[in-house]
Each structure stands twice: as structure tokens, then as C-alpha cells.
């Protein structure tokens, strides 16, 4: 499925839009980390919780549930807090 | 009998006439009261809530102003004659329930009914805002609202420049500008309020010079200070909308907390390289309220996870796009039109040339705007934002 990476994490992927597989949000993040080592820890902390400056949206709707089931046609948008003005 | 008298007599046979008191009662039950007099007459006083629609444009604009043909309409004029002609034409257009107010505004005043002296736009203002005035969503009433509005812009930089420029052009009556920085040459790639000749001068003074040249009727209030817990409520007091164009997380959390406490909408914009975010955080919105900034991002990234534009760069036009979306949202909020970005974020990717619309969730347990929560107080924002990542 398509995953849109926020600009501050682009150094890992090189692209905003990347492909990842998985039947849940957690699996998609694991697949991202397999492709781009280290990126998952920038989003999920040691307690397996979403970092508070990173938010996840599936087909435009916000989710806090890493076990959320996903289909290959879903689009995941990852947003990070930005300060620039 | 003269032809005019004969025509008026015929109209009186067809058009129901009601007294000013009956018109007021009908208006209270949802009828639209239309003042069909000339604008110079209306400027002397009119019925509160009356729609000013002179006979010259009545037939052309009525459908935009009153799309529901079943809605009751009361036409009023000076003495009750012109309103008969107006009512006749409204009936011909298909309005099903049209009345003429007998005795007109003269009798309205004699009957001691409430009178409102509308804010009159002078000739230069009419010319300046002509493109607003011809749109029913703005019109004279909306332009008057803008002229009476007060907007505070936090930051006169990349986002604040385009936002302030267009809000000034639009005729927002009072613009507050908060910025403690001076203009640097590296700002000029995007901060369009400033000029090369003003490098080294205060951004607030530079912005004032540009904005007053564009629209000298707008009142610019400068705050050459860094916002802090100690001064923010004093600065925000009296403003209708806050536009957050700051460039650091401590200020963004401080602005959020003050806006939550004071119930003011916070029009948020942020940029990074080729991407930007826009939303309106307004938990106190009377209908369909939304989250605050802390509901979305309870904590900022650690400094190493969030380099600033000074460290990673930003496409010069990007804050132009985002700042103008903030200005657009501000005008919508001030006019009470459209669907503001409350509970939604627009995420703009300039390289892809695309917007993503994201639905934001309000956090019922949010420490600042959560259900049943009282304001927990301001914090040490520099310390809060300097913490290392968990």
C-alpha cells in the first residue's frame, strides 16, 4: 500500500511516497523498518507507543490503533509536528 | 386620477400591506426584511437585521440573498410606496409570501421601533472593496464585519508576511503583529513584507511600513516582544482570531494554550522544505468544535528530531501558499462563511502538487481542552520543548 512519509523522516526513504506491505498498521511499520532501517523508532518508542509528535492517518482518518487492520488499497499518511514559519 | 396614483392603487389591491409592528413580529419569526431604499438613505438608519438591497439591484441579487422562494419577505422603503413596487417584482420572481410595509421607515420610527445606524462605507472604501461588495457572501455587511475585526498575527515572517498582506488588503480593521526579530537578508527569499533596504530594522516596523502603504485605513498594532506566559493574555486580549505563524515549538504551545484558555480560534500553519500544514484549532467553537494543537501533538519532537527551516531550508513560495490558506481561513471565520478547517488538516506537498485532507480527532482527555478540564496553567515552554526524545 502507499505510505506517505513526513519530510523530517525523508532522509530514511528518499521519497515521500513509498510502498509497504502488512495486514495491520504495526506490520506496515515493521515492513518500513525492514526497507528503511531505523525509521520505525523515530515513530514508535520503546514502550511500543506512537511518539506524541507523530500521527497516523488511514484513508484520511486519524488512528491511534497499531493493530488496525489494513488492506492493500489503503493509504497511510504519517504526519509529524512542524515548527517552521 | 394620475397614472402613478392609479398604479399604486392597483398594487395595493394585489400586495398585502402590514404595519411596522407586524413586520417586526414577522421578522422575529424568520421573515426577511428588505430595505429597498438608496444606500444614502439607509446610512441614516434602518431596521436592525434588515437586508440592504436597493431597488436598482433587487431583482438581480435577491435570489442569492434569499434562495428559498417560500420564505416570507417584507419590503420596506421610506414611506411605503417604493416597497409596493419592490414587492410586486418579488412576487413576479416567484416569491410566494411577500408583503409591503405600510408607512415605510418613517412610520417605523414614529412607532418607536428599534433603529440601527449601519456602518457606512465611504466612497474610497466602496471602491477599494468593490469586488467583495458584489459577492453576497461578503457584501456590505460582511465588509463591515471585516473592518470591525481584530486579528493577531504571531510572527511577521514567512507565514505572517503573506497572511498580513492579504488580510490588510481585505480590510481587516485591526492587525496585531508580534515579532521581536530584525529583518535579515536571508529572510527576503520568502518574507515579502520586508525589503532589502530594511535589513537590520525591526520586522514589526518594516511590516507596518509595507502594510500601511497598501491600505492606510487598517490599524497596525505592533508588539516588538517575545511572547511569554507573562504577557500573552495581555497581547491576545480583544482579538477575534489568532494566526500562528511562529517558527518554534515553545511559541506554538504557548499560543495554543492561551487560545484554548481565551476561547479564541487559532489558525495554524507550519512549513518544512516543500511541505506545509494548515488547520484551525478551536475547541470553544460554539457548534462542531474541534481539537486543540495539544490534542493532535501532545508533545513536540525533541530538538534533534525537528530541525528548523534555518537548518534544513524551505522553498520560498511555500509559506506563501500556507500563509494565504491561513488568511483565507481567518476571513471565513470572521465572516462566518463556509466550512472552516476545524477538526481537519490540509497537508500540502509542493513537489507532488497535492493536498491531503486529514480528519483530526479531539482528545477528550486533553489536559488543556478535554471534557470537564479547567485550565491547568501555563508552563515553562522552553523546557517543555527542549526535552530529549523518550
Comma- or semicolon-separated keywords:
heterodimer, A: alpha+beta, Ubiquitin-like (UB roll), five-stranded mixed β-sheet, B: 390 residues, alpha/beta, Oxidized Rhodanese, domain 1, Rossmann fold, 13 strands
Gist of the model:
The complex is a heterodimer of chains A (85) and B (390). Helices cover 18% and strands 24% of the residues of chain A.
Write the layout of secondary structure elements.
The complex is a heterodimer of chains A (about 80) and B (about 400).
Chain A (H helix, E strand, L loop, with lengths): L1 E3 L5 H4 L3 E3 L5 H11 L18 E5 L2 E3 L11 E6 L5
Parallel strand pairs in A: 1-5
Antiparallel strand pairs in A: 1-2, 3-4, 3-5
Chain B lengths: L2 H12 L2 E2 L1 H9 L3 E4 L3 H4 L8 E2 L5 H8 L7 E4 L5 H12 L4 E4 L2 H7 L12 H6 L1 H4 L5 H9 L2 E5 L5 H11 L3 E5 L24 H12 L4 E5 L8 H5 L4 E4 L4 H14 L3 E7 L2 E7 L11 H4 L12 H4 L5 H18 L8 E6 L4 E6 L21 H6 L4
Parallel strand pairs in B: 1-5, 2-3, 2-4, 4-5, 6-7, 6-9, 7-8, 9-10
Antiparallel strand pairs in B: 10-11, 11-12, 12-13
Helix pairs in contact in B: 10-11, 10-16
How would you characterize this protein structure?
The complex is a heterodimer of chains A (85) and B (390). By secondary structure, chain A is α+β, with helices and mostly antiparallel strands. Chain A has one domain: Beta-grasp domain (Ubiquitin-like (UB roll), Roll). Chain A is 18% helix and 24% strand. Chain A has a 5-stranded mixed sheet with strand order 2-1-5-3-4, with no helix packed on it. In chain A, strand 3 and strand 4 form a beta hairpin. The radius of gyration of chain A is 12 Å and the shape is globular. With 390 residues, chain B is of the alpha/beta class. In chain B, the strands form 2 sheets. Chain B has an 8-stranded mixed sheet, sandwiched between helices. In chain B, strands 1-5-4-2-3 form a 5-stranded parallel sheet. In chain B, helix 10 (160-170) crosses helix 16 (318-335). Classes of the chains: A alpha+beta (85), B alpha/beta (390).
